[in-house]
Each structure stands twice: as C-alpha cells, then as structure tokens.
Design a protein that fits this description.
12 helices, 12 strands, 7-stranded mixed beta sheet, 5-stranded mixed beta sheet
C-alpha cells in the first residue's frame, strides 16, 4: 500500500501521456472467456446431499484506496475496500469462501479498519469448517488461514496454481508442507451447490465460486476479478499502474472475464454477483436477506 502511494505521487513528475495510460485508460478485451451458467448449474446439482441453506458474511478488515486505483479514470476521492469472508451453512456442516487476514497483517499493511470480534468468529469457523476454498492466493483472502496456528489441520482446498508462486501470498506465506488438494481443468463441484471455475488472470490461482442455495438462489463470488460492481458492469479495469506494476496481473485475461460476467449477469438478472471488495454491494444483499451478517 505504501508503494502504491509512492507510485501515484511519481506520476506528477512523469506527465500527461503516462498519467492517461497508467491511470485513466482501461482498454477492451481482445477475446472471450468461457463462463457457462448451464454447466455451473449441472455441477451444482451433481453431488448428492443438501445444498447450503444460508450464506453468512464477516466484514473482517478494510483498506482505503483512491477511486482511480479501483476504477481507471475515476476520481482521487477515497474509496473503501472492505475485506470479507463468507460462510456456507449446510444442515450438518459449514464451509468457507476466503479467510480475510489477521490483525497483525492488517496493521502491517496499513489497513485502517480491523474487527477483532469478526476475526475471532472467523478463526473458530475455520477450525470447524468442512472445507475452505479461496478465490485466490492474495494475503487478504488467504491470510486468515496462512496465520492460523494449526494451519496444517485446516481442510483447505487449494489448487496447484494457488501454490505455484509464493510471492503472490506476500507478505505472508503458507508453510511448505501445505499441498494442493484441488485439481481440475475448467470447473469442479466442491459440495452440493458449490462449484469452482478457473479464472486465472488477477493471479495464477484465481477462480470464481458459484453457489446455488437450497432455495434456488444463485450467487457468483468473483474474488478480485472485480473489486467493485462497476468493474464488471462496465467491463472496466483497475488503473494500469495497479494491475501491471503492483499486482502483476494479466490485464487482458481479467477484461475478458469481466465481459463474460457482464454477459452472464445480463442474461440471468436473478444471479447475485458478489465482487471482492464492494461494501455497498454486500450491504444490499444483507438488506435483501440474501446474506446474513456474522458467522455461526
């Protein structure tokens, strides 16, 4: 986060062309990304057993970025970037999507918000979860597990891609004895109603998580393919300074994914799309009774 601030300040010296290319221009996707809702639904129904009856959410931590970093060409006004974890509640078990990060990491990364009580609930939920899946390997999604005292005892479903480049986990790193337990080519059913779909680009191990609840409501958790709703709604990336120089992202891959998500959501308006760090979007789902605050 400190490096980002330094980089943004340096643009004042570089000039207008660089400013436009690094902070304003988003570009258009050069191709397509396969995202098939029919296949997701088939896989969601493939495993026997009851689907999740509820999805709960914890707001564990939060950053603040300039809006122009989140959405290329936006203003310099501060934009909140909450950090979430989600709990899938089945009749007889629970599972987690993303594990946020611990307080020490939040402080070290200059996060202005951290909820100790939320992290305590998250820690207890990780310990008893039937499985834990992460949308990608960045510290604000995997960090809660990385810093767990008995991480080797957690039921982590990690892919080889998520473990392929430890630098993507910085400033944290999973112990070397943690191995990949999730292997698939395009999509895989993780549990009744829960499907992972590969979406490399933001990181090598980035994936979407589709959840079909027992009542038929459908959710697509994007991780950091999109930080905010407007990224996928307008097929508009983060500032290139952020994606190219700080995240090491495959920008075109992400743009193709954003276009596919928009097409899917347009065709299926009842699908609930959940971006990685959009507080108002999550609040709206809570207000509609589709997400429940606080873990069991």
């Amino acid at each position: 986060m400190k490096k980002l601030a330094v980089g943004l300040a340096a643009l004042l010296i570089i000039g207008a062309p660089a400013y436009w290319w690094l902070l304003v221009e988003s570009a258009q996707p050069s191709g397509t990304f396969a995202l098939d809702l029919a296949e997701l639904r088939t896989l969601a129904d493939a495993l026997p057993g009851e689907k999740p009856k509820a999805i709960r959410v914890e707001h564990v931590a939060g950053f603040e970025f300039p809006g122009i970093a989140v959405f290329a060409g936006d203003s310099w006004a501060t934009t909140k970037m909450p950090v979430f974890s989600y709990q899938l509640v089945f009749d007889d078990r629970t599972a987690l999507i993303d594990t946020a990060m611990d307080g020490a990491t939040a402080k070290g990364e200059s996060a202005p918000y951290f909820d100790d009580a939320a992290f305590t609930r998250l820690t207890a939920a990780m310990e008893r979860a039937d499985f834990i899946v992460v949308t990608h390997e960045h510290f604000d999604h995997l960090g809660g597990a990385s810093t767990f005292a008995k991480v080797s005892e957690l039921k982590l479903k990690l892919t080889r891609a998520q473990l392929s480049d430890p630098t993507k986990q910085k400033p944290l790193r999973l112990p070397e004895q943690i191995s990949a337990s999730l292997d698939y080519e395009r999509a895989v059913a993780l549990a009744p109603g829960v499907v992972a779909w590969k979406a490399p680009g933001h990181t090598p191990g980035s994936q979407l998580v589709f959840v079909k609840r027992a009542d038929g409501e459908e959710f697509l958790f994007l991780g950091d393919v999109a930080w905010h709703q407007q990224n996928w709604q307008q097929v508009h990336e983060r500032a290139r300074l952020v994606t190219q120089f700080f995240l090491g992202e495959d920008r075109d891959a992400v743009l193709r994914q954003l276009a596919a998500i928009k097409a899917l959501a347009t065709a299926e308006p009842k699908l609930h799309v959940v971006p990685g760090h959009d507080g108002p979007a999550v609040d709206a789902l809570i207000s509609a009774g589709l997400l429940v605050p606080k873990f069991e």
